[in-house]
Amino acid sequence: MNKALNRLTQLLDPHSLELMDDLEPTIHILVKGAISGRPVYCCSGNPDAKGVDIHECFRRKINWLEAILNKPAPVVWLHDFPQQAPGGRTPIPARSDELLASNESGVGRAFCLQARLNGITPQISALFSDAGAAQTFPVRLCDITLLKNGSHMWIGRPDAVKLMLGKAPDPEELGGAQMHCKLSGVGDVLFEQDEEALEWIRTCIENLPSTATAPLPVHPPVPPALSGEQIAAMVPADLNTPFNMRPLLGGILDAGSWMEIQEQYAPEIMTGLCRINGIPAGILANNSVECGGVLYPESCRKMTGFIRFCDTYRIPMLFLADNPGLMVGTATEQAGMLNEATELLRTLAHCRTPRICLVIRKAYTVGLYAMSGPGFDPAEFIATPHASISVFGPKALDYFAADRTIPQAALQAILEMRRHATEPRVYEEKGYLNAVVEWQDLRPHLESAMTKLRQGFAAQGNRK
Q1: Any idea which architecture 228-463 has in CATH?
Q2: Is the peptide bond before 25 cis (omega within 30 degrees of 0)?
Q3: What's the whole-number mean pLDDT along residues 273-278?
Q4: Please, are residues 273 and 283 in contact by the beta-carbon 8 Å criterion?
Q5: Is residue 462 over pLDDT 60?
Q6: 141 to 75, 77, 89, 115, 216: CA distances (angstroms)
Q7: What are phi and psi of 328, to 5 degrees?
Q8: Where are the domains of the chain?
Q9: From the centroid of its chain, how far is CA 79?
Q10: How far apart are CA 153 and CA 188, in angstroms?
Q11: Do domains 3-206 and 228-463 have the same CATH topology?
Q12: Is pLDDT above 80 for 350?
């Protein structure tokens, strides 16, 4: 069995694989099958292919994509390529004009049809080898992209960059998997072994609906790994002491269900899929152990993309806030901080999937709004007992209050704000917060809330 078929048999349920096209000769093995009993389509790149008519392969791929558009189900792309031009060299195919310009059987048509699937059904891709030029776009025309450590992805391969710019680039800096996961944000998950990627994809598909209009799959509830008391002990009393939000998830989510996405990119923000009481959910959390949890342009881009993904597939979201707001300064202004933060707010404003905003420790100014806070229609706006919600943090307010030249009216406003910044129950009494939830009650509260959100959103979808 060749490598492409072996991956397919590992990915799909036993005996579910069904070829949708001729097996040989082709660079794409096109099949349908099942994952946990649910239909999926798969395109597995065939690195062993030889003597292939590339034009015929694209014609088959286009027919396959048209069939999926007629009867959508999740699509898995397992990208691997024959070593036709090793060493990062650009291959030059015959009849390249047809591949470029044909409206019916060219590369552009395949791109277009795959892009049309976005928002209709989930697509996940994994790259196992090097990809360049036209090979790269199908890898990223997906909701989630996994990259194998040691692989490369270049819009312009090293030889093309040298010809056009006069200098040979370092292959890793130009398009290495680690670079794409840490710096460019092109890669969502970095993996080491093929089996690791295939298992990740299976688990991810199990948490996603079959189409954008299909109901979420529901799983048996699993208790969290940690108690409310255990996670309460993790949170420092000092608002300015960084702490790692990741272990805290152990007291909120179903044990073993956390699947982080873009872990290495903009790590001050955590994004991922999980289950709460058996219900799939999207988590967006600040992580103050990284850059103090401050939001940068990259943070906002990461948040915007993940919110859109959850909104597309109607995945309820839980925002865990612990941030002091947006980063200020020349570097972030020049990097387009205002553009990125505005796009994030615009995305939240149009987001239809139900969201819960939970202030774990602190949320100030636009940092609160960025976490689906008040004004952005959270289904619930809740906080832990010692959360700080304010325009400025307590320490900054103390600096303002120490100014002897400040007018009395302004001083009184600062003192009132200082009280609000340390007593979240004031917000609850005024009706701004839905609830201040004790740590031991947090998981039961979220179980109930997620069940209501799922039922309410399902009913709304049925009415539409």
Answers
A1: Alpha-Beta Complex (3.90)
A2: yes
A3: 97
A4: yes
A5: no
A6: 11, 10, 23, 6, 23
A7: -115, 165
A8: 3-206, 228-463
A9: 20
A10: 13
A11: yes
A12: yes
Nearest CA among 284, 286, 278 for reference residue 257: 278
- Angle (CA) 101-118-95 rounded to 5° is 20
- For 136, phi then psi, to 5°, come to -75, -35
Q: Strand, helix or coil at 434?
A: coil
Say if residues 355 and 314 touch (Cβ distance below 8 Å): no
Residue 409, both tokens: 């009216």
Strands 380-383 and 435-436 turn out to be: parallel
Looking at domain 3-206, its CATH superfamily turns out to be 2-enoyl-CoA Hydratase; Chain A, domain 1 (3.90.226.10)
Q: Write a three-state SS string for 256-280.
A: CCCEEECCCCCCCEEEEEEEECCEE
Give how far the C-alpha of residue 442 lies from the chain's centroid of Cα atoms, to the nearest Å.
Answer: 24
Tens of pLDDT along 88-145? 555 666 566 667 677 777 889 999 999 999 999 999 999 999 999 889 999 999 999 9
Question: In 111-160, where do the E strands start and end?
Answer: 123-127, 131-132, 144-148, 153-154
**Token pair recorded at residue 22:** 């001729």
Please determine, for residue 296, whether its predicted confidence score (pLDDT) is greater than 70. Answer: yes
Give this prediction's pTM.
Answer: 0.93
Q: 148: Cβ–Cβ under 8 A, 6 or more apart, which residues?
A: 126, 127, 128, 129, 177, 190, 191, 192, 194, 197
- N-terminal to C-terminal alpha carbon distance within the chain: 47
Residues 6+ apart with CB under 8 A from 188: 144, 145, 146, 181, 261, 262
Q: Quick one: tokens of 380?
A: 């619930």
Query: Helix H segments across 313-438?
Result: 330-334, 337-350, 366-370, 394-401, 408-420, 424-429
* Distant-in-sequence, close-in-space partners of 391: CB < 8 Å, separation ≥ 6: 364, 365, 417
